[in-house]
Design goal:
Layout lengths: L2 E7 L7 H15 L3 E7 L7 H10 L4 E2 L2 E2 L2 E4 L12 E5 L10 H5 L4 H24 L3 E4 L2 H11 L4 E2 L17 E5 L8 H8 L8 E5 L5 H10 L6 E5 L3 H10 L2 E3 L9 H8 L4 E4 L4 H5 L6 E4 L3 H13 L1 H15 L4 H13 L2
Parallel strand pairs: 1-2, 1-5, 5-6, 6-7, 7-8, 9-10, 9-12, 10-11, 12-13, 13-14
Antiparallel strand pairs: 3-4
Helix pairs in contact: 1-13, 6-11, 9-12
Length: 350
């Protein structure tokens, strides 16, 4: 029985999507008949990236509890800095502040701060590129969006391998009278755009449940009140896995409009519950999976267009059912068996 180490970094007290993927991959590898262990590499505060990369480089993934590790799959930066002769990376993202979010990150800095971070940025680019070129048997990207970043910034090639939905008991109990939103409440998730869409004339009858917590919650609650959305928008806070499945089972559709998302589990989770997803053209990963008018709606990232798409689904039950059926068919194309075969089994063969 082969031992596989699934390696990722994880900031303290943060359970991001990469950890959901990592845990699901561990379980899928075990289901395939191998043994698997999750290894979390050290995570340091922002500004201490050099020591974080060095600590990851020094992390022992050759053995776990005295057993030799046969294969390594790494995920989030800088976990791909670990060293093992049989190592593939299934990248969800590099440190985006130094890549596609550089302008947003560096804009408010002082000239001295920008110069300092520019130097750090060049060093991180060099370290990442070296790891991708010298540490790996194969490099996989979790979306075309991530693949394009690797090509642009690191000049490395990769294969796209979409993650399936987590292994939960998704179901469809019908198509209720509310749009469901689940996300960390942070600026890049653009929940404010959804609120603005709900305030447009076309969407006046649309109800919405927003699940999640985060640093923007206070601003979003105030925004909903300012837009007169009391009674139509419910902030559900953090929800358990069981509550999440229940909301997905009973909603009319799901709305997910992040900015340049790496992948976004929300899309395939909604699809797995036979629910259409409403997203926008610059959402990144979600817009790769949602086909407008087939398994969801894709609009420009503007309140009027988004509000009309939400209203169309709210007002037309047959449309929601038709798009939902195609969404479920899309979700069934992605399997953990296929992921394990690509990332693990093929690399264990003599």
């Amino acid at each position: 029985m082969a031992l596989v180490a699934v390696v990722t970094s994880s900031p303290p007290s943060v359970e991001g999507g990469h950890m959901v993927i990592a845990r699901a991959l561990v379980e899928a590898v075990k289901t395939a008949g191998h043994d698997a262990q999750l290894v979390a590499t050290p995570s340091n505060p922002f500004g201490q990236q050099a020591s974080e990369y060095l600590a990851t480089w020094r992390t022992n993934v050759r053995e776990i509890s005295g057993r030799p590790v046969d294969h390594v799959v790494s995920l989030r930066y800088p976990s791909y800095a670990v060293r093992h002769p049989s190592h593939v990376c299934w990248l969800n993202h590099t440190m985006r502040e130094y890549y596609d979010l550089w302008d947003d990150f560096s804009g408010p800095l002082s000239p001295q701060g920008r110069l300092k971070e520019s130097v750090r940025r060049r060093l991180i680019h060099a370290a990442d590129t070296w790891c991708f070129q010298h540490h790996l048997k194969a490099l996989f990207a979790q979306s075309t969006t991530v693949q394009a970043r690797l090509t642009r910034w690191n000049a490395v090639t990769s294969q796209v391998l979409y993650p399936p939905a987590p292994q939960r008991s998704y179901r469809c109990d019908g198509y209720g009278d509310f749009i469901f939103v689940v996300s960390r409440l942070a600026p890049l998730k653009r929940i404010d755009l959804i609120l603005q869409a709900l305030a447009t004339p076309a969407a006046q009858g649309v109800r919405c449940v927003i699940a999640g917590e985060g640093e923007a919650e206070g601003v979003l609650r105030a925004g909903a009140a300012r837009l007169g959305l009391e009674g139509r928008v419910t902030f559900a806070g953090r929800v358990s896995d069981e509550q999440l499945v229940d909301y997905l089972a009973t909603c009319r559709a799901v709305c997910f409009v992040p900015k340049h998302e790496d992948y976004g589990f929300v899309t395939v989770e909604a699809f797995s519950a036979a629910k259409a997803v409403v997203t926008v053209t610059d959402s990144g990963g979600p817009a790769e999976l949602v086909v407008d008018g087939v398994n969801g709606r894709v609009t420009v990232p503007e309140p009027t267009a988004l509000g009309q798409a939400l209203a169309d689904l709210h007002n037309d039950l047959l449309l929601a059912k038709r798009l939902g059926a195609e969404a479920l068919a899309t979700a069934r194309r992605f399997t953990w068996t296929g992921v394990v075969d690509t990332l693990v089994t093929q690399h264990l063969r003599p």
